[in-house]
Design a protein that fits this description.
homodimer, 7-stranded antiparallel β-sheet, 20% strand
Chain lengths: 468, 468
């Protein structure tokens, strides 16, 4: 059987016909009707148009789609906002994508419980705004907030900018609803901070990147909205001073919400780039820091924040500092930290690792030496959420014959392994880092992950080739 | 084969002989050498002396014990401080208890990472003190702190007094080591706040009450030590006012660390009892509240705390309030809230449920009416961590012929079910609440729990008959 809307020469498969019959043409797009954006996430890795894209309008439709695919052993790739950087949502040509974008909306804000129930396809920023309109604060925040979806944030356990204070996506999730591989709907919605009635099943679906089930609804914890923010940019003489200041700031302020470090090559490149427009402090310092505090007593908090920096100056933990005098200036500091200017470098390779905080300074030094020894003209940048133990590394190197990105991987992940770090702090494993998972997880751990996968998805239809 | 140290008439089983041969007589106690305390946890439910008690001195010895038991299908009950209230650590006569008490000690405090690695058998209070000595704050705290063990806290996902601010035990755990049913050692130690490299396996062992593995080491997150505390006792005119004040306090203070409510019958009984020694406010109010704030700026915090109570008085959310003028007075408030005086009532039955915060007032009213209608002379008390959605109910009733505790269970858990609550907020399921798990978990959830159990413990040797 063929349809005129399909590219000639491509027969519609049985599973697509079944999905069409069950869900209708509006919810099942195949052949030429599949939009290009479903071919890859923001990693751009190995794009492929899937066999079809299913766009369910309800949990029941997700369940129907999975039930049909499960019966035929048809592989399925869940897709949220496609902002992932590890290829976790990138399909193969033989997969069916299930895009959650039509499962969108805030179902409820329970002001008494301080919870919000949202459909998985809701953009994070939409949820943030709804929380704010209700007088609360949704603590999850990341650069892709306008495009990423809450279901994807949960499936990848997104991190972002305020983890040191509020935790990752996992800590914001009180409950969820997910559809299992065979189409079973698992309703673990929960509004309580305390609930120890049996296994906490929702944890299985947080951070497992759609390999154990598809998240369809999320109950998020809401926090009280902070009443003020203080932001400083500082220069530190060495990594030991950075760590000392981190602990001093937390001990003095309580509510440190960001503690970011920038190594000097990154700082110079970003602040010299015309896109950046500001250089908060002069070049030449071994470390630059962005420190943010969210508080509930603006006047007293500002005084404490200033006193903290004065003490740190007196103790030699920082050599210079500037406190943002406006939201605009705080935003300028963040533009420097985000450093989008480095994206202009061709062939940039980005890493997202974590290490015990005390080990990060030495790691960056050794890793930088090894990379520059191998590629003397390369750009090698270090920066990240140091207070969260999270370091980003960006490398722009010109490879010689026989060299590839894997030679960079080997150096970076080798240094991570040597220090008990993780090859993925917040971006997940996806397809991109799968071959290196053994660098930070032991054989017994990998075996247990496989056992869980086999127990929840015995036919292996959910996001195949991702994570494991 | 018999040994002279055994009570006559009891033959030593093959598994006990194997354990003795592998671990030695110091680590394997059987027959009359089994101390009475291993027969039950604090629930006192159905005590039984186990076949033997194994007291391993290392993770390797735990692994050896489980490997031997697994080979024979011998059931094993892990035991920590035995302070649980749900029978989760109570053995049957045919079980072997594995007591973790010799796996005791702080292995490391990493001040840079703000983490602490402790052996599972370490008493919570010992870990709290070590954290404090290192300048940090271990945020987990509960009444049994002197007796309970960190491994048991993790296995039961203990809650306690500061959950509204810091989360439950789960939120304090960055990593752990556990031994699986077959003796495999699973090393998921981790010091990083962000780590998304594959499934977060540690979650399986937190709150699963020893049914999926035995926790042997824990890496705990440490927080900055608060610099001051403010505590108030207040009287509120109704439940809507209680909730309004909760949200007002969180929005104004940020760092509310306890928000406890006491219903009037509980308050009157406790404060009239000679053991209590104080009555912070007169009888006659519909609700009493204990509010605590932990902060980092004692002078400014005290002013804000006082202003908050003044605003709440003006808004009619409270009718009266007293702020503790000393640590001693704050302690007196907590003695009232803990209400140990009610333990003097014979046949007291204690419940630990959670409900969406907005539903707790109505729940207590209906539940109280139903219980008093059935047992007109009963004591029925409501109190608990309202800010955590956690309510305790204590009932002392005289049963008529054919009546039992299950008639109370049916009423209480029926009202919980009707409101989407949980039959266990912080005490777990153990053996005590197993029959009621279906009141708050759906069949698909129970089936998935069984699938996890089968995947991790296919022979069913770990804490049989608990939770599931």
């Amino acid at each position: 059987m063929r349809r005129s809307s399909e590219p000639s020469g491509i027969a519609m498969s049985d599973i697509v016909r079944e999905l069409l019959a069950a869900l209708g043409a509006e919810a099942v797009l195949s052949g030429g009707a599949v939009e290009d954006r479903h071919a890859a996430d923001w990693s751009g890795l190995d794009p492929a148009r899937p066999l079809a894209v299913v766009k369910p309008r309800s949990t029941a439709e997700v369940a129907t789609a999975l039930r049909l695919c499960h019966a035929r052993g048809q592989t399925v790739v869940p897709q949220g906002g496609l902002t992932g950087l590890a290829g976790g949502a990138t399909p193969r040509a033989r997969d069916i994508a299930v895009a959650l974008e039509r499962l969108r909306g805030i179902e409820e804000i329970d002001a008494d419980a301080a919870t919000m129930t949202v459909l998985a396809g809701t953009p994070l920023e939409e949820a943030q705004r709804a929380a704010e309109a209700a007088g609360f604060y949704l603590a999850l925040d990341l650069g892709a907030r306008g495009s990423c979806q809450v279901g994807g944030n949960v499936a990848t356990n997104a991190g972002g900018n305020r983890v040191i204070r509020y935790g990752m996506a996992r800590e914001q999730v009180l409950g969820l609803e997910a559809v299992l591989a065979d189409g079973t709907v698992l309703d673990c919605r929960n509004k309580m901070l305390k609930n120890n009635a049996g296994y906490d099943l929702k944890q299985l679906f947080i951070g497992s990147e759609g390999t154990l089930g598809i998240v369809t609804r999320v109950v998020l914890r809401l926090h009280p909205r902070p009443r003020g923010r203080a932001t400083a940019f500082a220069a530190a003489p060495g990594y030991a001073a950075v760590v000392a200041l981190l602990r001093r700031a937390q001990g003095a302020l309580g509510g440190v919400s960001a503690f970011e470090a920038l190594w000097p090559d990154f700082y110079r490149f970003v602040t010299d780039h015309p896109d950046t427009k500001s250089k908060p402090l002069p070049d030449g310092s071994p470390f630059y820091l962005l420190i943010e505090h969210l508080g509930f007593d603006p006047a007293a908090d500002a005084a404490r924040f200033e006193a903290l920096l004065a003490e740190a100056l007196a103790a030699g933990e920082i050599a210079d500092a500037v406190i943002a005098q406006s939201d605009g200036q705080a935003r300028e500091f963040w533009v420097v930290r985000e450093g989008l200017a480095i994206d202009t470098l061709p062939g940039l390779i980005n890493f997202d690792v974590s290490l015990p905080i005390g080990a990060i300074g030495d790691f960056a030094e050794r890793c930088g030496q090894a990379l520059r020894a191998r590629w003397p003209t390369a750009h090698v940048f270090f920066y990240g959420h140091i207070g969260d133990s999270n370091l980003h590394i960006s490398v722009a190197a010109t490879f010689g014959p026989g060299e590839s990105i894997h030679d960079v991987d080997d150096i970076v992940y080798g240094e991570v392994r040597a220090r008990g770090g993780s090859i993925s702090a917040e971006h997940g494993i996806g397809r991109l880092k799968r071959d290196y998972l053994g660098h930070c997880r032991a054989p017994a751990e990998l075996a247990l992950m496989q056992a869980l996968k086999a127990a929840l998805d015995p036919r292996g239809i959910l996001n195949p080739g991702k994570v494991l």
